[in-house]
Amino acid sequence: MNRQRAAWVFLAPAMVVLGVFFLLPVIAALGLSLTDYDLYALADIHNLRFVALGNYWELLHNPLFWAALGHTVYFVVVGVPLSMGASLGAALLLHSPLARCKPFFRTALFAPVVTTVVAVAVVWRYLFNTKYGLANYVLGLVGIHPIDWLGNPHWAMPAIILFAVWKNFGYNMIIFMAGLQAIPADLYEAARIDGASAWQQFRHITLPMLGPTLLMVGILTVSGYFQLFAEPYVMTEGGPLQSTISVLYLMYNEGFQWWNLGSASAIAFLLFAIMFAVTASMLRWGRRGEEA
Amino acid sequence: MSCRAIGFAVLLACQLTGCRQQADDSHTLTFWTIGREGEAITQLLPQFERENPNIHVELQQLPLSAAHQKLLTAFAGDSAPDMTQLGNTWMPEFVTLHALEPLQARVDHSNTVTPSDYFASIWSTNVYEGALYGVPWYVDTRLLFYRSDVLKAAGFNAPPRDWAQWRRMLAALSHPDHGAYGILLPTNEYEQLMSLALQQPEPLLRDGDRYGNFESAGFKRALTFYVDTFRLHEAPDITNVEAGNPWLEFGHGVYDFYFSGPWNISEFRKRLPAAEQGSWNTTPLPGPDGLGASVAGGSSLVIFRSSQHKQDAWKLIEYLSRPDVQQRFYALLGDMPPRRSSWNGGSLHDDPQAQAFREQLEHVKPTPPVPEWEQIANEMQLVAARAAAGDLTVDQAAVEIDRRTDRILEKRRWILDHSRATASAHL
Amino acid sequence: MSPRLAKVIINGLLVGGALVALFPLLWMLSVSLMHPGEADALPPPLFPAHATLYNYQELFVRAGMGRYLLNSLLISTAITLLSLGVNLMAGYAFAKLRFAGREKLFKSLVGMLVIPAQVTMLPLFLMLKHIGLVNNYGGVIVPAMASAFGIFLVRQYARGIPDELMEAARIDGAGELHIFLQIVMPLLKPIMVTLAIFTFLTAWNDFMWPLIVLTGQEHYTLPLGLASLAREHAQDSELMMAGSVITVVPVLVLFLALQRYYLEGLLLGSVKG
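Above: the input entities. Below: the structure tokens describing the complete assembly.
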């Protein structure tokens, strides 16, 4: 067997699976998004119409789409910095030479990451229960009135964000820890000799040295958080008053609740385009920062 | 990879793909139920399986909020069950999809299922363009549960018969400062507003169900009554997620009216302490001027066209339609039977709290028979909730509901016009 | 700030953080052992008055949790084994075998990482419907048999294998398959373990796609069964907690046993990328 042919034999299974079950559907989705595939078309394919960009046009005029996008952006804009802040804080604590029992703390802080979203979302739903939930009980101890976390449109998304931060911060924590370990110790040594405070060291050594890691983690987290679905599906079913409908939730509802596959595909592509634009501009902005 | 490993992999693949075919060989009937019905029916099936020893029924319970999506997806994925329980607002979709088996011929030959015995409006929700697609299993309509003791204490000796009386009672019983409200109307449930709207003379859709008719005087009257209840703080502006345990709160007098369906009779009996059992009752829905209509809801039993076991499925439908079985079903769950003869015996006959439903069932109206209805009703409620919260006026809300409805019905209009055009081209 | 105070603060914060991270999981375990209705009390009880396995019994006997557990195990194991083979071969080919168009193909593979899987879901459903894989374990397993991320991970790792090893074997007349199985595979063992845990955890925790494609209860995985139960038995907190425990414990145990590999893979997949 020559090497060229061997390479293709090794590649073939993966390429077939990815081509047939990933690439082809992506192209098909693009096609589908240009039609009005719906319940009637499912019943009789002659009821399918080509609508060009009609689905996109309608979505851009659909308040629910904008609302869903608004909720998703809210989740990303508040959730990502909180999440990364928690990750960085935990990583700094664990990196400190003064910390004890590091392996235990690392494992404990990481544990939520490996848990199943659906299962822990169920747990948090009870923690957030207005009457018997521990969240309100603890708040009550310090004299704060019970908050209707999952029932009040203003609080449902913050509750989901808190849950997401808890669930995800451990992942980036590990990456930040590796990043911190890669910073040469003599930089801090020199700074200490110059009399720099802990804050100054963090500001002028840690942050710049972590720059590329922060950028990469930021991009990955943003694209992950844009794909919000299971949390509202389990915790609020999109409510109350649709205040936790995310873009993907809307796609799921349009697609599989009402069988409007055409407009659901258009939603998927719009989300993709938005994610792509946001992460690409983050990358660009980050690179420029590096050059400066 | 060794030959043995390949053989094993093939075997595994056959195992993985083969389980569906396996079920088809025997007399195994797959039957999907939605929500609470699934648990009760497990107690009715043993007798059926004893009477039909060659049929085995495999039950699957779908949670209510996921059922619609599951049923449609299963049909679209060619993995529909033999038969299912189907809410009658969902029936038009499945009829449009040609998913359901027409049942008229089987009914004609049946000794058990006699159409004239059924409440007429309920039966008619199963008929589309002259063809019958389902047999009503249980009925669901909305009416009022009320605290008779609280009403009496406030000087009202009888429940309200029309909106004006009802409004007076709501005003007298609501003390929002003390957290007491006349009624609970969860803002994410459309059934309440829909029932009020169905009481109006104008239909909810117009021109052969091509356009929304929500700007009609009737709907605006219903929406005004609904919104006023919130505006006057006679109902809290909350969803059923926030409502917590409505049964206990009804018992504690947080709400004195509860706008709900038949299953709550058994819930109240189960959940309220014995001392409070004498303090509540049910009454037909008050209308704008005297006794009002309510929604002809409920679930039917349907057979999927793709089923390989239609005869067995029909046997189960006949069994579940027998008055004695329906009476047991009511005793288990409180789901009310759709045929009059089932009401004439068993615990239903002398049940004082069920009598209001019996009366209401003769005054029910079906919802518009279009596949988009559920979606329209959802949109209607979303807009109405905003009106209840004070973000929209009644007129603005009516315009907005019509706008959304017309957008949803666009495809339907195209198909109706399209098929008429092709039909006339053939002439 | 004295070093002693700093030490107290840092360790104090770590203890607090660990408590926040672990508390929901420990609470879940505790409530799952309570009697029905016990958790709905004020103040919310932290420990069961008399621990009971009633909820677990209920789940397995009446709610069919055993079936979901088996399905989850079957699907996750099948995906792990199959995708491991497929991704290893492809990753190795990208790293060590020279062929025309390699760089271009690899670039487009990396490009695929950017496309969210949800874009494919709707057409994929229609496709699988035509091949009869809807409501079938295959509907979840087959599309997951290869992943751009897995191939990427293997390639990054396999690049570290010295070419001389393979060249020496080729001079001795060994075939490419032999080289892969006998020489390369043993060297890839660490990344195999890493990839296996990653894949298993992802498959186990996956929700959206199985929710769409597995229409019948008999095929539900644990997350689907649990989400379905959560909508039906919302009030039964004790029962739901027991269901969560059953869903979460297998992956937690797997992680604790193999956490070194998992964390290394996590870094390999992101930092060096």
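Note for the figure: The mean pLDDT of chain C is 89.
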